[in-house]
Design goal:
The chain is an all-alpha fold. It is built from 12 helices and no strands.
Length: about 250
């Protein structure tokens, strides 16, 4: 697979007249140094061109895994998530033993989350990112990236919760309250603790009131009021709804 990729990219470079790498040095030390300096200065296009040429021209060089990682990093810094993911994946698939795997895996998961669409669209990529972040934390529990990975995991959960909340809101607008109730209860069960789950609890209480389930609504409202870290605006809404039941 690695050999095919190098041959293929070299062929493409020839076909394009080496447009992107024609002015780059050909000597490996100079090429590698140029890539690192360009990356440091924020010249991500130049860095990517230099590291791509290095990985194609010198695939057996001891620095090839680092060049591959820095190629992916160049795309990541430029927020070119698709190319970043592709290059991180190539590193993980073809260089099984190197010091860059941990960072590559974390950044690949991050890129999946960054490129995922807004909550009202399909969230397959968000689910993939969440799975990767969980796997990362299981594989590297003591990683320096662990804290950030947990934060991103919560971000992914909240995005998926928002996706479900949009569906519940649609059912509410259609006055299909039983369906809305099921979506809200499942949201709260799947993603407890995220900000959207707190909002969903308030909306669930409103739905329960509409369904005539006053006792359940009161219980839900008391849970919101007693929960720590609930925004004041949500607590105030819960107090107001509770008064309507008394």
């Amino acid at each position: 697979m690695m050999k095919f990729r190098f041959v293929y990219l070299a062929f493409i470079a020839i076909i394009m007249g080496c447009a992107s790498t024609g002015k780059l040095p050909s000597e490996p030390d100079a090429l590698f140094k140029l890539g690192k300096e360009a990356l440091k200065k924020g010249k991500y296009d130049l860095a990517a061109s230099a590291f791509e040429k290095f990985t194609i021209t010198y695939p057996t060089d001891p620095r090839a895994p680092e060049a591959q990682f820095l190629l992916a990093e160049s795309y990541f810094k430029e927020k070119d998530w698709n190319n970043a993911i592709s290059e991180y994946k190539f590193l993980l698939d073809n260089y099984p033993r190197n010091e860059f795997r941990e960072a590559a895996y974390f950044h690949m998961a991050t890129a999946y989350l960054k490129k995922s669409p807004p909550p009202y669209l399909d969230q397959t990529e968000t689910e993939e990112a969440m799975g990767m972040l969980r796997n990362f934390l299981a594989t590297y529990p003591n990683s320096t990236y662990a804290k950030e990975a947990r934060q991103l995991l919560e971000e992914a959960k909240d995005k998926l919760a928002k996706h479900m909340l949009i569906a519940a809101d649609t059912y509410i607008k259609l006055e299909k309250f039983e369906a809305a109730k099921l979506f809200l209860e499942e949201l709260i069960k799947r993603y407890p603790g995220v900000p959207t789950a707190m909002k969903a609890k308030v909306i669930l209480a409103e739905v329960l009131i509409k369904l005539g389930e006053r006792d359940k609504a009161l219980l839900t409202l008391n849970e919101i009021i007693d929960m720590p870290d609930v925004p004041d605006s949500l607590k105030q809404t819960a107090f107001t709804l509770k008064k309507t039941l008394q």
